């Protein structure tokens, strides 16, 4: 579904990715783990068009997307949930969700948008209860649900998630990943970036270990969970 081939990219003037390659199969959950500053967020931003790679290629469903603007990548079926949620704090919950449907927000698509909104509310009932609340007054967990719900409004086939557990209480993290697992079982493909390697490797099918802008290890997560290097560096072994 997604093929990243030897991309290199800079962020804030620093080389953040060095010939990184990975594949995301349709219907799978793939994770990228690594320490702060490893280049994980830059990788997702490169895929979603926010950062322009210096070299390499990115194919989505066989078509190149590396030079497309972000809104066109969203139209192709890729949605990005950024680190720190980055909701529109002054807007209401429902206004934030409608922003996720911006690329097809026209009168003739109103029924389609309302149908997608209903699906988001079924996924996150709390958002329906809070729909008229100013988003900036919601709790951290509610804001994370909103950020994911906003991405789902674009009707993605591939969901990019950047540190969804960041700053959240354990019970909230558990609920977020329960919902993500449900979305996966409904057919959504997920590429997850997580600093919490235990969560990521338990949740995903296949994983990549990114260190200082390079992929240093990859494999099925069941094997990575028992890898001595991963245990020593990321699992507290």
Q: State the low-pLDDT regions, or none.
A: none
CATH architecture name of the domain at 1-77 and 194-237: 3-Layer(aba) Sandwich
**Helix fraction by DSSP (H/I, runs of at least 4):** 25-40%
What is the CATH class of the domain at 1-77 and 194-237? Answer: Alpha Beta
Shape: globular
Sheet of most strands: 6 strands, mixed
Mean pLDDT over the residues? 92
Based on secondary structure, the structural category is alpha/beta
Total number of helices: 10
The beta-strand count equals 10
Task: Give, in spatial order, the strands making up the sheet with the most strands.
Answer: 6-7-8-3-9-10
CATH homology superfamily name of the domain at 1-77 and 194-237: P-loop containing nucleotide triphosphate hydrolases
How widely separated are the two ends?
Answer: 34 Å
What value does the Rg take, in angstroms? 17 Å
Q: What proportion of the residues form beta strands (DSSP E)?
A: 25-35%
Q: Do you know the CATH topology of the domain at 1-77 and 194-237? A: Rossmann fold
SSE order: EEEHEEHEHHHHEHEHEEHH
């Amino acid at each position: 579904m997604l093929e990243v081939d030897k991309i290199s990219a800079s962020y804030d003037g620093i080389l953040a990715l060095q010939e990184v390659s990975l594949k995301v199969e349709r219907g799978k959950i793939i994770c990228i783990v690594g320490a702060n500053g490893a280049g994980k967020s830059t990788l997702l931003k490169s895929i979603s068009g926010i950062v322009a790679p210096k070299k390499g290629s990115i194919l989505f469903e066989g078509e190149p997307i590396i030079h497309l603007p972000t809104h066109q990548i969203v139209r192709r079926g890729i949605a990005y949930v950024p680190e720190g949620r980055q909701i529109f704090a002054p807007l209401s919950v429902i206004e934030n969700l409608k922003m996720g449907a911006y690329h097809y927000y026209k009168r003739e698509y109103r029924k389609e948008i309302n149908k997608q909104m209903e699906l988001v509310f079924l996924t996150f009932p709390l958002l329906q209860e809070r729909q008229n609340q100013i988003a900036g007054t919601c709790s951290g967990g509610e804001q994370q649900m909103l950020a994911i719900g906003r991405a789902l409004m674009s009707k993605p086939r591939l969901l990019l998630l950047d540190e969804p557990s960041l700053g959240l209480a354990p019970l909230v993290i558990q609920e977020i990943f329960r919902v993500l697992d449900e979305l996966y079982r409904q057919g959504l493909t997920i590429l997850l970036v997580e600093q919490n390697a235990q969560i990521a490797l338990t949740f995903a099918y296949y994983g990549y270990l990114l260190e200082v802008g390079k992929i240093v290890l990859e494999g099925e997560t069941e094997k990575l969970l028992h890898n001595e290097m991963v245990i020593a560096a990321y699992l507290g072994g």
